Amino acid sequence: MYVRSFQYLAPKTVKEAVTLLNKLGGEAKVIAGGQSLVPLMKLRLATPSYLIDLNRVKGLDYIKDQKNRILIGALTRHAAIENSDLIKEHVPIMAEAASHIADPQVRNLGTIGGSLAHCDPAGDWGAVVIALNGEVKITGPRKDRVMKIDDFFIDTYQPNLKKGEILTEVRIPKPQPNSGGAYLKLERRAGDFATAGVAAQLTLDVDGVCRYAGIGLTALGPTSLRARKAEKTLLGRKVDDNSIEEAAEAAAEESKPTDDPLRGSAEYKRAMARVLTRRALKLALARATGGGA
After folding, report:
1. Domain for residue 58, yes or no?
2. Which residue of 152, 165, 198, 288 is most buried, as measured by CB atoms within 10 A?
3. Cβ(140)–Cβ(162) under 8 Å?
4. In what residue span(s) does the FAD-binding PCMH-type domain sit (predicted)?
């Protein structure tokens, strides 16, 4: 099916893009990598009258080291994150997650900002940024605002963006020493959307007691979810088989999957949440203690 006709706009600055979006309102859609929006347009599930292309906007494609955090521009491609030495050094879970996204073509075109703003619960970045306790910077007609990633996801395909606002930056705190993370997902075939996925990030003290736990869930609810009870199960305790099992059980209970004729029943997905949380935490623990690949 062909897309409905639209007017194409290519601003060169963030200010110009925001002005256009604010003026055109609900008749306009923003396109970055196009890997989420274009398929919806082909199916006529999205029929914008105006398409605002951000790819000519300068200054939104970067990965920067800023003291205690990593700054990632919204137009940064998945492949750039996958191959970044800075990412591999400080937040290797992001490089790992990027390598699991679809296929090389999608990774070379798709952007982290576009993926997050699309708010697909099966998108990989949401759970990973949740596990890392990240933030997003939003640029609007009047001023910028910064919010925790948890507050950005309102519902399926519904980001916390007001009229005229664009997601322009992702901010990731650098994990402390003795940290490790892992992102695992179950898919029907390589490159498919996740049936279920779990991102886990741990920080331990010198005695092996958990000082930080971040657990994000992919495709297990209406949005990317934080498994808060599972995180609390680990905090202040030694991370071992017993605490990991308790956290895995809590994550399964917190998940909110639905029946899907293509990817399985809610009961099956909840069971996979338990399995993947267990495996991700064990791998994160091994990496935090220097024993994991």
Report:
1. no
2. 198
3. yes
4. 1-177
Residues 253 and 188 in one domain: yes
Give the Å distances, CA to CA, from 99 to 77, 200, 226, 293: 12, 16, 22, 15
Amino acid at residue number 289: T
Supply the pTM of this predicted model: 0.96
User: Considering its fold, how many domains does the chain have in total?
Assistant: 3
Give the pairing type, strands 194-204 and 179-187.
Answer: antiparallel
* Domain that residue 200 falls in: 179-288
User: 3-state DSSP call for residue 258?
Assistant: coil
pLDDT 10s digits, 221-274 = 999 999 999 999 999 999 999 999 999 999 999 999 999 988 999 999 999 999
Alpha carbon distance 267, 206 (integer Å): 39
Q: Are residues 114 and 86 in the same domain?
A: yes
